[in-house]
Amino acid sequence: MRPVSHRPPGRSRPCLRVGLLVAALLAGSVAWASEPAAPPNGADGQAAIVALIDAGQFKVAEAQIAQSLADDRLAPQTREALEFQRERMRRILIDFTLSEDEAKARVRKQIPDLKDDEFAKWDAAGLLEHQTIDGRKLYFSRAPSNLFRLSAEARARRAQQTPFNDSPLEKSHPHHKQVHDEAIASGRSSAAPHSVRVTQSITVDADAVPAGETLRAWVPYPRAIAGQQENIRFVASVPAKHQIAPESAMQRTVYLEQPAEAGKKTTFSITYELDIYGRYHAMDPDKVVPVQPTPELAPFLGERPPHIVFTDDMRKFSREVVGDEKNPYRIAKKLYEAVDRIPWAGAREYSTITNISDYALHAGHGDCGQVTLLLMTLLRMNGIPSRWQSGMIFSDGEYNNLHDWGQMYLAPYGWVPVDVSFGRLADAPAELQDFYFGGIDGYRIAFNDDYGRDFAPKKEFFRSETVDLQRGEVEWKGGNLYFDQWDYDFEWKVLPRGAAKDTQ
Predict the structure, then answer these.
(1) How many CA atoms lie within 13 A of 460 on its CB side?
(2) Per-residue pLDDT tens for 342-367?
């Protein structure tokens, strides 16, 4: 078991209520609490604030937020949404920290003889993510490292051609063949199981809150999913007193409390075991038929603002990819292949992005969750139900990371996994190249069967991660603790098969 500690400046990944409020602000539908004339910034003005922030006009947005919040007639839900927009600006400035000279200096660490015109060319091509905020051009803190993922020309200029730290399962791997062959031989979609013991922890910085104040932590915990992850057994926690969210929680956690001590870090941890299966569905495209909408499938077919919206640009992209195809399997495959061509890059924090699927469509790159939301949106637009899964991935070695993927409903096969971020395995045998279109490996733990859902118990303040739940969340009576105030850790050990016995 090897600990791997992470405190990324951006994501490698407010509750749903805040997301819906932001969507309402954008649509101009949030009402004021009283009948008298609205203050200068009514519903349309609130939507304009979101647009101002997206355009980098922070000072103007802050002035309008302050003006609106000063009015005691403001509805509580509108007040909360505006306060989050203020917080969103703060978070953007944590992600976008580099001047042009600083960004160049980081690129020069790998290209010592970098020329200014080279940098300018890559910048103009959109390969170095930046924003102009109140007249200052600021680069995303991971833009210099992302450049080498996005540009073959930049990669070729590196002084040292070191490989990227990717999952070993993003290329052809014996595990893919094992899952595929066992599933085909058995006629079942679940195969190649193994047991794992996991310890996850959150460590809050010393003096992040006053001594004696109670810190509240939510640590991610797996959901029991038949044929995917079973026999979940809670082993221990620090502190010992804990509250496990029910199976019905779509973003499942273990809740812990602990008082802060002066000058000391505060650590929360949980240990558990479970059995994990790889999955593979052998599907005949000619047998796949359009789904008949049902109450159970309806939530997975429509828009879900702010991150699943059928925009004009989304419809145009879909038409160009799908063409005249009518078969749902082949439509899904075309969309999967199109999104798979979007290169991976380390992402800014999701809470700072107004519409993630739209962002992935236009940015020219995306991480696992961004391209998953894009694919989910496109599938739904074409009458194919889609839904979210996410958690942690690991390996037999030292690799682990946050990861997001999805599921799609293809009749008559039902819900099948799809991981467009891992995508096509070009170096695999033909029968395994599309493994992740209907299959997933057994080296991942799902904490989430949806995104942006309430915790049990509920969090009082804005979440650090408004979409996903992989690192955890922390707060105290004074507010949320953001990612720059604590760190997380994920340790694992593969156990002999069947070691996990009792289901929690």
Answers:
(1) 11
(2) 999 999 999 999 999 999 999 999 99
Residue type, 487: D
**Mean predicted lDDT score pLDDT of the chain:** 91
- Indicate the pTM of the whole model: 0.92
Domains 191-278+449-495 and 280-445 are alike in CATH topology? no
Q: Per DSSP, which regions of 242-395 are E strands?
A: 243-244, 253-259, 266-280, 386-394
Break the chain into its structural domains and give their ranges.
Answer: 1-162, 191-278+449-495, 280-445
Instruction: Identify the H or E element spanning 4.
Output: strand 4-6
Q: For residue 268, give both structure tokens.
A: 């929360």
- Residue matched to tokens 């190649």: 192
Distance CA 368, CA 456 (A): 26
Q: How many CA atoms lie within 13 A of 402 on its CB side?
A: 25
DSSP-assigned letters across all residues of 315-345: HHHHHHHHTT---HHHHHHHHHHHHHTSPP-
Domain 280-445, CATH number (from 3.10.620.30, 3.40.50.720, 3.20.20.80, 3.30.43.10): 3.10.620.30
Give yes or no for a contact between 217 and 266, defined as CB atoms under 8 angstroms apart.
no
Is the CB of residue 490 less than 8 Å from the CB of residue 280? Answer: no
Question: Using CA atoms, how far apart are residues 482 and 478, in angstroms rounded to an integer?
Answer: 12
CB 304 within 8 A of CB 364: no
- Residues 363-404 have pLDDT tens digits of 999 999 999 999 999 999 999 999 999 999 999 999 999 999
In which band, very low, low, confident or very high, does the pLDDT at 42 lie, cut at 50, 70 and 90?
low
Alpha-carbon span 480 to 497, nearest angstrom: 40
* Portion of the chain with pLDDT greater than 90, in percent: 88
Architecture per CATH, domain 191-278+449-495, reads as Sandwich (2.60)
Name residue 266's amino acid. Answer: T
74 three-class SS:
coil
As a whole-number percent, the residues of the chain with pLDDT over 70 amount to 90
Computed from CA positions of residues 249, 254, 260, 263, in that sequence, does the dihedral angle turn out positive or negative?
negative
Q: Is the dihedral of CA 202, 223, 195, 387 positive or negative?
A: negative
Of the candidates 396, 499, 404, 488, the one whose C-alpha atom is nearest the C-alpha of residue 446 is 404
Supply the Cα-derived Rg of the chain in whole angstroms. Answer: 23
State how far the Cα of 238 lies from the Cα of 447, in Å rounded to an integer: 20
